[in-house]
Design goal:
By secondary structure, the protein is of the alpha/beta class. About 40% of the residues lie in helices and about 20% in strands.
Length: about 375
């Protein structure tokens, strides 16, 4: 999928999105970011989704019921008679999907790997939940992600948690989230579970910090994507959707996680990320300026404050030469989606200048503080 045009879909009145290697989506809550991302997966993975629902004994009789099964209970009204979806110049119709009795439900390939914002709910007592353990009213994307991670740790657990190998620690953000802790597979109890070993104390999932709990499914997903298996047959044409990766994280961890994102792009994935963090937009802004200045990969080592290495040299070199970055703002007021990719702080358009509102408070705070400091100094 290169372009997606949307009209009258849920809170989105009109959108024209062109995807880059990394596409960032920003905007207030309930402005349509998650709905657009789920729509992307529905379009790209129609056969896979239909097959998965049928295999898990889901049934539907019409378009409305199908939308409820996929987007979640009560969501059938997001698609109405005025809705129009166009993908790469071809119209996409919901009626083409909602065919339970079709002789050919579709293929098994998954083209969009979706990491939902509610990912912490996928781990129960330190182990990924099954598809069927979720309510029928829950969105498909959370159930599917949890099931994918469950299969991954069930089939590849001995490798993922193998002593001395620890592929989980290959992510750049690991040390900024888990520090000296070791994520381990605990088989001592009645069921397997993931624990965090800190100074020989094996801590169960429920006592981890919020950031560690939020990040554990992400780290499993990173390794899953680095070593494609199960439903993913390869990285070609695979889009990775990540909702709010910054949840519960310190800015230093968010910064190092961006390096993980760049690595995934360098090996062939496209990433679409929704975020409420200005740090991701600061990166997109900075790399844009660095490119214009013809800076080399060394500037990214300085930006992320990490030691140079041959592996990251290749990643950063590609980031500075061929990676394309796009940013879109979801305007809740008029239901539009606006291209703010320039991230020009001097733009007359406040949506661009304030990065979709993410930098507006900081700018306003600086302005108010400066004004009052000047008034105070003049009064003494």
């Amino acid at each position: 999928m290169d372009t997606l045009k949307v009209k009258n879909f849920g809170p989105i009145k009109e959108a024209n999105v062109e995807f880059g290697d990394l596409t960032l989506l920003v905007g207030p809550q309930a402005s349509g970011k998650s709905i657009l991302l789920q729509l992307m997966k529905l379009i790209e993975d129609d056969g896979y989704i239909t097959n998965t629902l049928v295999k898990n004994a889901y049934i539907w009789n019409d378009n409305a019921e199908f939308l409820d099964r996929y987007f979640g209970e009560g969501m059938s009204q997001i698609w109405n008679d005025k809705t129009k979806i166009t993908v790469d110049s071809e119209e996409f119709r919901i009626s083409d999907l909602a065919k339970l009795n079709s002789d050919e439900l579709g293929n098994e390939r998954e083209n969009v790997f979706y990491i939902p914002a509610q990912r912490v709910l996928t781990l129960e007592n330190g182990w990924p939940r099954t598809f069927k353990s979720f309510s029928v009213s829950d969105p498909f994307v959370i159930k599917n992600f949890s099931e994918s991670m469950r299969l991954y740790v069930e089939l590849g657990g001995n490798v993922i948690f193998q002593e001395g190998q620890k592929p989980l620690k290959e992510t750049e953000s690991y040390k900024d989230i888990f520090y000296s802790g070791e994520i381990e597979l605990d088989k001592s109890g009645p069921t397997k579970r993931i624990v965090l070993n800190i100074n020989s104390s094996r801590l169960p999932f429920m006592v981890w910090s919020t950031g560690q709990k939020e990040s554990m499914p992400l780290h499993l997903a990173f390794i899953f994507l680095k070593y494609p298996s199960l439903t993913l047959t390869g990285v070609k044409d695979i889009t990775v959707v990540i909702e709010e990766p910054e949840m519960g994280l310190h800015p230093a961890a968010i910064k190092s996680m961006i390096v993980d994102f760049l690595y995934l792009i360098s090996i062939g994935y496209k990433l679409v990320i929704s975020t409420h963090s200005p740090i991701l937009l600061e990166f997109a802004w900075a790399i844009q300026i660095l490119k214009e200045c013809n800076s080399g990969s060394k500037s990214l080592f300085e930006l992320f404050d990490i030691k140079q290495s041959d592996a990251l040299e290749q990643v950063f070199e590609r980031a500075m030469t061929s990676m394309r970055f796009k940013t879109y703002y979801f305007d809740k007021e008029d239901g539009g989606i606006k291209d703010i990719s320039s991230l020009d702080a001097g733009s007359e358009n406040p949506d661009i200048a304030e990065w979709g509102g993410l930098s507006s408070f900081a700018s306003r705070a600086s302005e108010i503080v400066s004004k009052n400091v000047n008034l105070h100094e003049q009064s003494i």
